[in-house]
Amino acid sequence: SGHGNAYGLAAVFAVSLALFIPWRIWNPNFLTHITATTSGALIIGYSWYDRPNSPVPVIWGPGQGWKVFWRRELLVLVGITAAWIIDLFPRPKPGRDHVRRVYSRTISELGNVSALVIKVLHDPPKSADEANAYERRWLELRAINAKLRLTSVRLALAKLEPDVDGKWKPERYAMLQRLQYEAVDLLSVLAFVCEGLDPVTRISTLASGAFSTSRVAATLNLLSIVSSGLATERPVPAIMPSPRDTSREYPDLDSEVRDALNKTNDQAHRLDRTAFILAEGTWVELGSITEQMAIEAQALFGTNMSWA
After folding, report:
1. Which of 108, 215, 237, 301 could lock 227 by a disulfide, CB 3.0 to 4.6 Å apart?
2. Cβ-count burial of 78 within 10 angstroms (0-12 exposed, 13-18 middle, 19+ buried)?
3. 276 and 205 in contact (C-beta within 8 Å)?
């Protein structure tokens, strides 16, 4: 209702309001930031007048008393209503939160597939329908791999976001991605081997140290702990279960497999040594990978109940 340049006013506010975007993202109180920006823009826009016969725009009083009160009151109500409508839209999430939550889900899914592999090892499919059902579950590994590939772009873009709280450690998340790739490969091999084991090799495999109840539970618990830490960003336990062989201080994969073969009773020479080594070795290596994941989670979120 004045002689001001509406386009110039819009350009000024477009630049000014860009400075409030971080405030909009990280401020939990919508009435504070939405009302201040939206209502402020409307009221200032209404009050922007050009002084007659002057090319210089100035803030001009549009009136006084009830004549201007109801107009300004209406503008404030419009601003609050606009703030309420805008707040109904989903809040934009930073790319870093997206990566963290995706990794939480993928590691949880790796734990589910690992548990299913152990189930197949103990109770192999007895019919074609059961085998087909397991095959469909193995496709989850391909889905996990696809999710990890998509996060590569997110990891690259996350470097452009301002690190406000100082919690973002790109090298740790890159390591978690690489470890998950390795876990997917190992589980793919292990699932294929476990489905095709003959009875003699299956019994020897279950009796080996790698698939003891304590080591299997430790591996699955570590995956659950890391997934929960990524989902909540809370400290993880300082002392975690270890899937390693506790009889030796620093066991390695070759020595564990060799010991298992030496302890195997195969008088009839019916043991499929290749399948046995693959099953034993992949699970031992998977346990080592889960330990590295736990170390990365401790570096990202810290530890609780720690004396350090």
Report:
1. 108
2. middle
3. yes
Distance CA 37, CA 23 (A): 11
Per-residue pLDDT tens digits for 206-256: 887 788 888 899 999 999 999 999 999 888 988 888 887 655 544 555 565
- Locate 154 and state its tokens: 């997110």
Tell whether the model's pLDDT for residue 108 goes beyond 90. Answer: yes
Has this prediction a pTM greater than 0.70? no
Angle at 224 between CA 192 and CA 212, to 5 degrees: 55
Structural contact between residues 259 and 280, judged by C-beta atoms closer than 8 angstroms: no
Task: Give tens-digit pLDDT for 187-196.
Answer: 999 888 888 8
Burial class (CB in 10 A: 0-12, 13-18, 19+), 256: buried
**H/E/C letters for each residue in 29-97?**
CHHHHHHHHHHHHHHHHHHEEECCCCCCEEECCCCCCHHHHHHHHHHHHHHHHHHHHHHCCCCCCCHHH
Q: Which two tokens stand for residue 53?
A: 């016969």
DSSP string, the chain: --SS-HHHHHHHHHHHHHTTHHHHHH---HHHHHIIIIIHHHHHHHHEEEPTT-SSEEE-----THHHHHHHHHHHHHHHHHHHHHHTSPPPPPHHHHHHHHHHHHHHHHHHHHHHHHHHHHS---SHHHHHHHHHHHHHHHHHHHHHHHHHHHHHHHTTS--SSS---HHHHHHHHHHHHHHHHHHHHHHHHHHT--HHHHHHHHHSGGG-HHHHHHHHHHHHHHHHHHHH-PPEESS----S-TTSSS--HHHHHHHHHHH---TTS---HHHHHHHHHHHHHHHHHHHHHHHHHHHHH-EES---
Closest by CA to 102, choosing from 168, 140, 138, 147, is 147
Residue 300 tokens, joined: 């990202």
Please say whether the beta carbons of 239 and 299 come within 8 A: no
